[in-house]
Write a structure and sequence with these properties.
- This protein is an alpha/beta fold.
- The chain has a single domain, classed as 3-Layer(aba) Sandwich (Rossmann fold), CATH 3.40.50.150.
- Helix content is 39%, strand content 22%.
- The protein contains 7 helices and 7 strands; from the N terminus they run H-H-H-H-E-H-E-H-E-E-H-E-E-E.
- The chain has a 7-stranded mixed beta sheet, with helices on both faces.
- Strand 2, helix 6 and strand 3 form a beta-alpha-beta unit.
- The chain is globular, with a radius of gyration of 16 Å.
- The model has no long low-confidence stretch (mean pLDDT 90).
């Protein structure tokens, strides 16, 4: 079963994201199908059902793009399968997105996705902490292994007036990162999924 642009548009309408998703629905669908194909031989995500992939991956990524703070550059820290970085790059072409992924096979998938989708984003095929400090307007984290311990590293990569954004299920990790003010929004398509956006106090 493949993902169609119509399915992407239907989901975007349910999420209230039709305006930003509809112009790139065909490319979002192509990305979802590429992810499904690669997932058969490389464990990129535990989600293998196309309908669930649209909701949990594509729409969460589009939601991130719609709520993206004003920025010229963004980093997807521990990008994995490319969420939310690739949907952000598709929906917000004015933002240059860097996908940081240290696992070689996942980085290879990201390179292929950028080539297939003709995106001008960049893959950093190494650990994100090797990137220059303070070099991104916005840093995104989603389902990053040991995310609490990674938070200070991610925060160090945010420019002085920039934002740190987390997609997850928990309360804002204020205790793990002092000196930042958090705002939280619930994701419309999921009962327990939230977006935290933080800036330095």
């Amino acid at each position: 079963m493949t993902i169609t642009p119509a399915q992407v548009e239907d989901a975007a309408t349910r999420w209230g994201l039709a305006e930003i998703a509809a112009p790139v629905a065909d490319r979002l669908a192509a990305y979802g199908n590429l992810l499904l194909r690669w997932n058969t031989r490389l464990s990129l995500t535990a989600i293998r059902n196309p309908a669930e992939l649209i909701e949990r991956h594509l729409m969460e990524g589009v939601f991130a793009a719609a709520d993206h703070p004003e920025a010229a550059t963004a980093l997807d820290f521990g990008s994995g399968a490319g969420i939310p970085g690739i949907p952000i790059a598709l929906c917000r072409s004015s933002i240059h997105v860097t996908l940081a992924e240290s696992q070689r096979k996942k980085a290879a998938f990201l390179q292929e996705a950028l080539r297939t989708l003709q995106l001008g984003a960049t893959v950093h095929a190494s650990r994100a902490e090797l990137l220059p400090a303070g070099s991104f307007d916005v840093v995104w984290m989603r389902a990053v292994d040991k995310s609490i311990t990674m938070l200070p590293i991610a925060a160090s990569l945010v420019a002085s007036a920039g934002a740190l954004c987390l997609l997850g299920t928990s309360d804002p990790p204020a205790e793990a990162l002092s000196g930042w003010r958090w705002k939280t929004r619930s994701l419309p398509g999921a009962k327990d999924r939230v977006l935290h956006i933080s800036r330095r106090i």
